[in-house]
Structures
1.
Amino acid sequence: MRILTGIQSSGRPHLGNILGAIAPAIKLSQEAGNESFLFIADLHSLTTLRDGESLREFVRAIAATWLAFGYDTTHNTIWRQSRVPEHAELAWYLNCFTPMPMLENATSYKDKVEKLGSSAVSAGLFTYPILQAADILLYDADLVPVGKDQRQHIEMTRDIASSVNHQYNSEVFVLPKPRIDERIMTIPGIDGAKMSKSYGNYIDIFQPANELYKVIKKIKSDSTPLEDPKNPDTDITFQLYSLIASDEQIADMRQNYDNGGYGYGHAKKELYELILMNYATERERFDFYMTHNDELEKVLREGEEKARAVARQTIERVRTVMGFN
Ligand code: TYM
């Protein structure tokens, strides 16, 4: 099966990206019979980030994260979207098959208009789902591991692909399916809202330990006194801990909450220590790639060649069916 997913380079990857998409995608890439296409959606990030220096750094951070989590690039592919111009080319063809109301109904677009007003929204942001559809269809992806917030984008991709297939009475595109882990559909941020780069409520597991601890200490909690029992199921620290801890560790912490005499500060310290322990290897590898740019660049260049070869074939197929060849 072909697996594909992308991460925008609008910031360094946070725990939500890692648990919602990066870790599940890497796991799928390691299953026998699967072939993976995991990429850096740098063109998408231009809709919100207009600072070249930051963009370059975030692109490196996303690439370093894929590698830190053990992505095997000898059997799979990793690339920067902007280096494969076929993404933009296919997006144009798909533009012509996308009804305006479909885009007007996109939740991410509606949210932005509501928050910022329509004059603050660029055409790029409006057509963002079409570029995403191109990313997926270009590589004949069967399965797209993503967080819950991306479900609508995958549905739009399927609708656009079906409409082209139907128009030309041909199986030019493979219809992809989303893979969304029900347990970790939406990872909360330190304020309890969805963890997001744009809300500034995220946990960056690659931060130096003391800075990471500072962020974890800021996780919102209620004012139940230390000695009283606490409800783990409504607490953000417990929720985050449960996502990365073993069943035994979760049961222990639950017991501590129930017993009382155990403060939120204790839980936060345990969460912090667990992150450092669970992700020790990933933190080391991340630092290695962030300080060895040549290694990173080599992997990306090789990936770009592989990605482009696949993308070219799809584009030729599309051009033929549409009458451009
Ligand atoms: P992006 O960069 O916003 O997020 C990357 C991935 O992380 C998931 N995610 C979360 N999952 C659980 N809880 C959270 N709090 C959380 N925050 C983020 C997202 O669901 C996503 O899977 N449009 C995409 C990037 C993209 C893409 C693609 C994805 C471009 N082309 C093609 C798949 C296929 C995005 O903005 O992701």
2.
Amino acid sequence: MPVQDLTQLRSMVERTVAAVPIMDVHTHLFSPSFGEMLLWGFDELVCYHYLIAETMRAINMPYEQYWAMSRKEQADLIWQTLFIDNSPYSEACRGVLTVLDKLGLDVASRDVNSYREYFKNVTVEEYVDRVFAVANLESVVMTNDPFDPTERIVWQQEIASDPRFLTALRIDPLLIAWERSYEQLAGWGYGVDRNLTAETLSEVRRFLSDWIKKINPVYMAVSLSADFVFPDESVQAKLIAECVLPVAREFNIPFALMIGVKRQVNPGLRVAGDGIGKADIKAVEYLCAHYPHNKFLVTMLARENQHELAVTARKFRNLHIFGCWWFLNNPSLIEEMTRMRFELLGLGVTPQHSDARVLDQVIYKWSHSREIIGRVLADKYCDIARTGWQVTEAEVRRDVQKLFGGGFREFLQLELG
Ligand code: HDL
Ligand code: ZN
């Protein structure tokens, strides 16, 4: 059988990757029902915390002077510093330009007023529809924090649910700040004490169950520091073992561990002040091996953890790895990670999530990632086509649907008893 035309194959793959709608499995977006919690528009896009960090190392301004500015003043400063006084080719800067371009705005004009004018003439509901269409998104998973006072108010009302916005129960305060969060739980009527007594552990399980019933999350998630270990004698480990994992198993939802942050290495930068650390894969191996009835979603922040994480995923059917998270969400690292994952895991991975905090960002984060994932995938299909294997368009579409959310949904449905 002759080898099929590789040029035609490559363009078919890249066309299919562009055409398949995506389930974005981790974002910080909110549906319009959450009001001001949904960030969108030019000033929010330019004031993304990645760009704050890049600006504050390019100019010698006291951090508090920046934080005292209005949103518009902050955006003007960032635009002048990173886009005019310097060329905007860092990934976060490039992303802003991609968004403006994909929205049909005149990037060459550099006319910030015209960009702001565009957003004055669209409602948030219209803009959500437009962004989902331009980015070709099927759904996004929010990050829903029951300890966030603003978010709690929203959940106490009857909100108009938008099926495109799925929920995730984010429990960082419970697991990394127990000495404060137990008092909040007590204030909400849960019979907890600082000491992890049997009663306290039972009440924490009730708290988790109550919120799972309330918001119907696709997973429970936590961001863990680079020095996360498990098992150990810590409060965090006991809450995971005695509360999070039993409740996750009861509701058959995965526990998503996002491991590797070094919180507030520069507190002056606030939300932009977190750093990165290499974590110990042993914790992931132990959890997957000792809790075979639980499902684990894992993404790690350090480039140095990626190969061992992919190899660990080969060992456990209850582990599904996802995304090129945060400081890894850059073309050079997305390409490296995606090639390695496809070679080690085939279709058994969710290669990307956007982590978008501003609605507009999904346009650039997915445009850039689709291009890279499409290129890598085309290489993989060409590799097998050279042996005479016939790659069909239907099978490529099936595969891409799996990579862009289908495999993730299968994992959510997986029953491990
Ligand atoms: O903890 C997380 O979910 C991280 O994604 C943080 O929100 C981080 O600040 C971020 O926005 N990364 O993109
Ligand atoms: Zn995130």
